[in-house]
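> Could you send the DEKNAAC101307 prediction when you get a chance?

Sure thing. Input:
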Amino acid sequence: MIADQVSLAYLFGACGIILTTYYLVQQLTIRHKASKEASRTPGKSSHRTDPNAPPPKPTPIYLTPEQVKNRDDRPWRPFRWPYHQTMSIFKLDINHWLDMDKYYYEYIKEKERVYHSYGPDNINWLPGSEDACLELMEMVKEHMLLRYPLLFTSEDNGIHVKNEITGETLDFSEPLKLDPLIYVSKMAKEDFYIVKKDDEGVHRLVAAAVPFPGGSFGIKFKLGKTLDVIHGHVPYYTTKLRPSMERWFGRMQPADLIERASWYISWDHKLLLNNVYALQAGDKVPSDVEPTDFNVRVERQTLRRLPKSKAIIFTNHPIFYSIEEMKDEPLVPSLIRKIIYEAPEGIIHYKNFESFRDHILPYLDSLVGRQVENGLIKRETPIRTLPSYPFAYFVNDSNEEKGWTNPSHPVDYRSKLQDEIKKGISMEEETFQRVSATAA
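Output:
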């Protein structure tokens, strides 16, 4: 993909949160107009405006490290049709702000590798962001201790915290031994972006811990930039997003927590740089890649405000679902096939669908035919958003304690992830040099 496009994708997670912000503002505007009606229906309103409402506290869940090793998190299926007309924004249950699953250990170790390899290109902060970084660190620590009391333990009221999964004890005594965002990256598997309003009332990216952008490098080229600069080439920004974004950011209160999911497709599980975004303009997927190797990378995203510093926190958590494991889920292959060919051209180009869609079309056709033969759908079944959107149909068949393992096609790609990371280092370095040269 061309370097400008890759670079722009970086701020809010590759191919996801930039467009998310547009739709977030759009959906919040709609919901704000109906706030009185929504307030009478518990769970329907995704945005509250009471500045005195405290942030919610999580409920403890007593997962052990051994249980986490086999735990799948909520099964996202964020496929919708019509693709460009709707974008569900959901009120975030605080218990799911920082989720836990069997890939946690691999994600934390990959964060360490990325930081030691690329440092400030993926984790960095500006002077003036210290209060927000410290507040985020304390909030993440408190959340982990409260939500996962058997996974994060402390005998001295949080001065020293042991991560029972990695075995590392984090020393929070003052003066801090590490920078706040490093502590955050050692506790949570999510990526974090910190946005603050400057003295002129303009929101800027002031700090970021983003080891897993999926499609780019270069936090140092984004820090300090305004949202106008970062979103300069985003579709609909000038005409629809810009007038309302700052207004909504100004209204958001600490009790307002929101989540959603975006997605794109690649043929690997790497977190720092997926194969689809290592391609240069006009490149296609290698012909020897098996169609069954293709995965949907879901970017689970949240948005909230810190109560003291008033900084806005974006999080992004990538997780992979192979198309193969979703083959028996009614309409999923049909939706993917329709979206990669019939979505608006800007989105098709933005997510690089042209690079692989012809390669996997016969595979998708076979899966759709298989669903017809097995009676899962009829050939004339309309293609529409899933009834269980944004989750898989089996989401209600499990719960937080059990987790949400796919009942038909359980998947564990941990060993494959590690192998792909090792083999992909040279590709990372080459892409990093190319993108950095362009961004500079």
